[in-house]
Amino acid sequence: MLNKNAALFEKIDRGEELTLADLTTLLHMQEPEELHRLFSAAYEVKKRHVGTTVYYRGIIEAGNICVKDCYYCGIRRSNSGVERFLMDPEEIVREALWCYENHYGSLVIQSGERQDGAFTDMITGVIRRIRAATEGKLGITLSLGEQSRRVYDEWFQAGAHRYLLRIETSNPALYTELHPGDHSFSTRLAALRFLQEAGYQVGTGVMMGLPGQTMEDLARDILFLRDFDIDMVGMGPYIPHKDTPLGAECTGLREDEKKELLLLAKKMIALVRIVLNDVNIAATTALQALKHDGREEGLLAGANIIMPNVTKTDYRPHYQLYENKPCIDENSTMCRGCLEGRIGRIGETIGYDEWGDSPHFFRRSGRVSTHT
Ligand code: SAH
Ligand code: SF4
């Protein structure tokens, strides 16, 4: 069986460019021996380009009020069953300081999308306060959706330096099926460009296992990430939420479906590592929703970033983008201890107090890193 794809593995070993057809074939692969070879090859690329230190970004889920209505998301504006919240600035800063005191190199502030001035000004103030309180030592990533170029500039000037905005799928037709008419693929692309122009390290990614998505779509997603010169990649399995148009029919993922999705997610991570080599790749929380050690498996397939949840436990049940989100009844200290053991067991170390920026960003921008 190994012979079937031997030529592809030789291409990978020689560092040759993989075509759309190659990537599609590799995504279809099921043979355990071949999969093992793929993950080992990706791990070698990871070791060579980014090493085996895992960097943390503590994620603060700052609010679930959202103006968007994405058909797949549990906190979409039309879901009237959600108790809406927005943390006040003190709470966000307090959680940021928890990250700092616990030696997490960076944090991510994520929330539903809001463009109103009250919200965007609040975020600017929070970024300034976190920078001042940590003497600029805590890396600040934002994941606050589509904003104007002016707002992206303002947040960058205030001290944020990374931004995560998933393209969700690089197939415009599929994007249209997943979103209502007032959400646009071209606006999303323009927002990603604004972020690059504003000077951020830019992260994007896709969901995997979406209804109607093919292996060729996912192969194209990988080439999209490469061609867009993306610095950071965050991809996760699509996990249905029953109170959404896309998930309404679903009664929960079966065990075999979870297994298959996790395998697909690992193949995507491995191929992104092989094709984009020096980017940061997150082993996302959604992997853990499929299997208790899904994130560690993601690290072994080529990921190098973990985003531990540092949101106050009271708020966690109200930020369910998808169902069965893990750790909603745990607190940040429990998550910290649990993760440390898990990462140690796979032989990797944690880059405490380090930013762990994407080497790709410095290669792309010609800038020089000022943080280890
Ligand atoms: N509002 C911001 C940030 C929060 S949503 C934004 O949309 O960018 C963050 C990510 O959650 C989205 O990009 C999407 O990829 C993911 N997400 C939403 N619903 C999901 C679901 N049902 N399964 C898996 N991931 C989901
Ligand atoms: Fe809002 Fe983000 Fe969910 Fe879309 S994915 S509904 S923008 S929180």
Distance between the ends: 44 Å
Indicate the radius of gyration in whole angstroms. 19 Å
Question: In the CATH hierarchy, what is the class?
Answer: Alpha Beta
Helix count, per DSSP?
14
Q: What is the total domain count?
A: 1
Number of strands: 10
Structural class, please?
A: alpha/beta
Name the poorly predicted regions.
none
| Average residue pLDDT | 95
Query: How does the major sheet shape up?
Result: 10 strands, parallel
* CATH topology call: TIM Barrel
Percent of residues in helices: 40-55%
User: Rough shape?
Assistant: globular
CATH homology group:
Aldolase class I
Q: Strand percentage, roughly? A: 5-15%
How does CATH name the architecture? Alpha-Beta Barrel
Small molecules (ligands, ions, cofactors) in the structure: S-adenosyl-L-homocysteine, iron/sulfur cluster
Order of helices and strands: HHHEHEHEHEHHEEHEHEHHEHEH
Domain Radical SAM core: 48-280
Protein name: Radical SAM domain protein
Pfam family, one: Radical_SAM
Cofactor: [4Fe-4S] cluster
Describe this structure in words.
This protein has 372 residues and is of the alpha/beta class. The protein has one domain: TIM Barrel (Alpha-Beta Barrel). The chain is 45% helix and 12% strand. It contains 14 helices and 10 strands. Strands 1, 2, 3, 4, 5, 6, 7, 8, 9 and 10 form a 10-stranded parallel beta sheet that branches. Helix 5 packs parallel to helix 6. The protein is globular, with a radius of gyration of 19 Å. The model has no long low-confidence stretch (mean pLDDT 95). It binds S-adenosyl-L-homocysteine and iron/sulfur cluster (SF4).
